[in-house]
CCA-adding enzyme (Natronorubrum thiooxidans), 934 residues
Amino acid sequence: MSEEDAERDEHEAAETSADNVESVVDEVHDRIEPDTDEREHLRDVAARLIDSAETAAKERCPDADVLQVGSTARDTWISGDRDIDIFVRFPPEVDREDLERYGLEVGHETLPEGHEEYAEHPYVKGTVEGFDVDVVPCFRLESATEIRSAVDRTPFHTQYLEARLDDDLAADVRLTKQFLKGIGAYGSDLRTRGFSGYLTELLVWEYGGFRPLLEAAANWRPPVELDPEEHARATFDDPLVVIDPTDPERNVAAVCSAENVARFQHYARAFLAAPRVELFEPNEPEPLTEADLREHIDRRGTTPVVVRFAAPDLVDDQLYPQLQKSLDGITTGLDDRGFDVFRATAMADETAAILVELAVSERPAVERHEGPPVHVRNHAEGFYEAYADDSEAYGPFIEDGRYVTERPREFTTAREFLESDRLFDVGLGAHVETALEDEYTVLVGEELTRLLEEFGTQLSRHVEPRP
Amino acid sequence: MSEEDAERDEHEAAETSADNVESVVDEVHDRIEPDTDEREHLRDVAARLIDSAETAAKERCPDADVLQVGSTARDTWISGDRDIDIFVRFPPEVDREDLERYGLEVGHETLPEGHEEYAEHPYVKGTVEGFDVDVVPCFRLESATEIRSAVDRTPFHTQYLEARLDDDLAADVRLTKQFLKGIGAYGSDLRTRGFSGYLTELLVWEYGGFRPLLEAAANWRPPVELDPEEHARATFDDPLVVIDPTDPERNVAAVCSAENVARFQHYARAFLAAPRVELFEPNEPEPLTEADLREHIDRRGTTPVVVRFAAPDLVDDQLYPQLQKSLDGITTGLDDRGFDVFRATAMADETAAILVELAVSERPAVERHEGPPVHVRNHAEGFYEAYADDSEAYGPFIEDGRYVTERPREFTTAREFLESDRLFDVGLGAHVETALEDEYTVLVGEELTRLLEEFGTQLSRHVEPRP
């Protein structure tokens, strides 16, 4: 094919693709745009809640005010989302203790059925006409750089974006969020470590829409650094850096993992090459069947081992980092003992399970133990004498000028190691360690079928991983 | 124990040890010193051979001369050694072709029953009254630095040492040689890679005797560099460097392996700490029995694998380097495929066997295959497309920002690899490769019992290695 032909083909392909993008985007857009009824219902409920919160707040502090924040405030919410976030702002002269007390009182008056939760401040959470409502107290500050806790920053984000996202961009934010949900990269919780709503909005604003964002992402070469306000006052080591327009020292994408950045790039290319609605639909795989699990174990020839225990009673943002730490510790502990790790996953529900798939699950009864070079006389003599009469050890003999012995190995199977106290020498999350001290089970090979009832879907994801 | 006590104890220990050294040395000395009859017999035979060679040489080249070299010339031979080396020297103006022709003619006249062999020149070898006699032609040069081949150097070595080794030192050379034989480190052939006779003589001369040499060696910190004539004109990377007194650019110990240097250090310390005659006696272990082999395989839990083939018809100095190269190639080939090597040995007699003891002899059916980082768009897209529709592969999925697939592994057992053509991709010695192309057998685990008849002793050494 000549260069001209190639160029023409590419051009035509781009045009076809453009048409397809258009039609797919329209279809998704229609699905996720809240309709007039939904909008009005939300607007009514939000207005009543704001009124009620305002009355309660001003009774306690005449200078307080109330505002709605988050995606339902910025019209970037997806049809079916039911979150209303009401922030009650107190002037900075108010004591932190008073703020917390007022906040809870206002919350309870606004949401008589609500209950208290605790993030950085305590706040009140409740349900009103099917909406999940948070009433959160914060300080009203001049600038986001003066904030005393993370929630104080939220009103600044809302202000910044409200001024910039017109209806078209808001629609593109919805599309982008849905796309990120579809590919499993939406959410800045520490389980997902993906793209937050605020980050998504900034990216759409910065690149000027859904499609330009995808086209840019398809060619990203991390680290990608964006600074909409050109005011960065810090550097970051993350694959994606988006300097907060309201805080020059903060990377909005700090929590977003390299894996999710790569995933977004992968699916951006996949979408641009072959636009299709399915990419916007979260893909929950079918739970693995027992027959499939056995078949995969057989086909792969690896040895899966599992440490299973009662899931610590923690919120996901605390639980998953601990599971990840424990997973890292256990894989290192196995690898260090010659049990080569192939791939590993942590999963949690009622119980938690650390699944490590091993390429090598058995080792010989002996292991090499290298001593000092023979010429380092003191050490060498000590080493030689220590093993010369050890009937359990082979050697010492000499290799490349060093003494070497072969000693009985502490663990010849991965199961022995996992069932031993040495498991507690690896880095475990604190609550995971406590749970293991209480009780745990080791499963090996086909014993994994015992996980199917609780973790069928997660096991599907493990054995058939996708980008 | 106080420091003074410790010093006194050490002093006493040294004295006791000194007495023991004396008596052990005397005993060994008596055994290895040739008696008057043996000496006279050798002297008679040598004199007759020299006469005969001289007559034959001068007939062809009036300016030729003949001399005896080697340990029997320098009186450093051990009782029972039967080597007489006769060198026929021609002036340097003689053509190399003439030298070779004259040399063979003189050899055949001197040793009518002899046969030709080939080192750097052809020469004649034969047996006379129980002695192994070599008649070797060489050039007579002004200095060893002008030599045209290695044999030309030998007369210079003899001259150098004859002038320096008195009877006491000659006796200590015999002791040292016997000690090196006892510990298996004597001989500069490429199978042993130990201490040559000339090197032994230089070390005894340099340190002033057997005992001072052992005391020095016990404390060597390689690289050890000796230069008796202080005339080195080159540097060397060997653990032991002894600059040839007759050639400033040559390391006499070049062939001596780090293992043999360390072995000499080890046994030097062992002898000084507890002098005993047994150290002077080569220790040939009992051939391994079938029951012992099975027991060791069981106790060690490793998987021994063997490649066995007809031993190439080569002299040891050519065969063993090729076996070593093949051993290295095969161990690397196994290691690269995940079959972790524990220890390996090459052995040869009628057949040759490369024995590799494996810690891991089986691998899963799949292997990880890491692709490019997702952000390197061209490569990444190519990689993804290559595997996305491959029903044999798992993935591609994303880990740490890279594509990863899991593909069927080429070999899941070490035997499969060893029995495949890929064995010929590793670095093999040329003649070993030819032999394998012809035919070879792979033995695994208890099939090793088939080696016992031919290699019982070598297998003993492998399973019970000593310094």
DSSP finds 15 helices and 15 strands in chain B. Residues 3-32 of chain B form the longest helix (30 residues). The mean pLDDT of chain B is 92.
